[in-house]
Specification:
Glutaredoxin; alpha+beta
Length: 83
């Protein structure tokens, strides 16, 4: 089963780094957007996209298939991934 995983992160956020490390350790591929590293218009677009799935705009936000996990909640992430 192939699942699309997209994460919105900040490059300086320890919880965001923990999420990336967790996914890497489980050999799970994902698309990552470090919002703080984007230029102005790209950043605005990423924030608008994030607000649609997480109105609080908190980091990290992971979109795993049709589930959204806000924050580094390991149990919720494992459940969404079927681990």
């Amino acid at each position: 089963m192939t699942m699309t995983i997209k994460i919105f992160t900040l490059s300086t956020c320890s919880h965001c780094r923990a999420l990336k490390k967790f996914l890497d350790q489980h050999d799970i591929s994902y698309h990552c957007t470090d919002v703080d590293l984007l230029e102005s218009s790209e950043r605005s677009e990423a924030i608008e996209e994030l607000k649609k799935i997480n109105p609080r705009c908190s980091f990290p936000t992971a979109v795993i298939g049709d589930r959204v996990v806000c924050g580094f909640k390991e149990k919720d992430i494992e459940e969404a991934l079927g681990l």
